[in-house]
Design brief:
Number of helices: 9
Oligomer: single chain
Helix content: 25-40%
Largest sheet: 5 strands, parallel
Strand content: 15-25%
Shape: globular
Structural class: alpha/beta
Order of helices and strands: EEEHEHEHEHEHEHEHEHH
Amino acid sequence: MEDMLTIAGKGYRSRLLVGTGKYKDFDETRRAVEASGAEIVTVAIRRTNIGQEPGQPSLLDALPPSRFTYLPNTAGCYSADDAIRTLRLARELLDGHDLVKLEVLGDPQTLFPNMPETLKAAATLVKDGFKVMVYCSDDPIQAKQLEEMGCVAVMPLASLIGSGMGILNPWNLSLIIEKAKVPVLVDAGVGTASDAAIAMELGCDGVLMNTAIAGARNPVLMAGAMKKAVEAGREAFLAGRMPKKLYSASPSSPTTGLISSK
């Protein structure tokens, strides 16, 4: 039986979601996404052409919607109203597409989520028929509130967007995962493959990243590394790691029953 990631009733083989920004061109974007094995790709509506600019190169040509599930996001939005307006535009551009990623930022320096505005936008978007995956702080209470209002996935940050600092608070992530009845995906802060593996070993349902791949010296090679890391971390979680001990009273090589030298 395949271990599928299910979001809003649809199953995906890959648990790695990738962004499409910050690459040198759409060709590099395409090659990196293909190497990652991702089936869901995020697109910043305010920064990427998906039809708003007729006659200009479009991401839709590099990554056809027939092959990939698009996840329009509200990168660059600092208020609930801006985020709502942006996603309504995305729904028009993508012929009624309703799976979206909500992020409402608090300031342009840290890009930390503005949670009061995020909660406000989420409530409106869910009521408006969107299937909302939401970037949020690693606060277990607020993550639960977002789930209860109808968001289809919660996406707490591991560390600040674009920082590459990895998972700074695994305990809060574990609390969110323990209580959640919707998928929990780490969003923001992943810097390298080991960060992605740790997120999956903690029990996250998936990982979303952009800068960790696009900002690497070799984005396509890094995309392949991230694919393997997410898969390995998921398998390790399902396998169940051995308990941690200060020392072991049972050596891995038994001292009893040895062949006598006499």
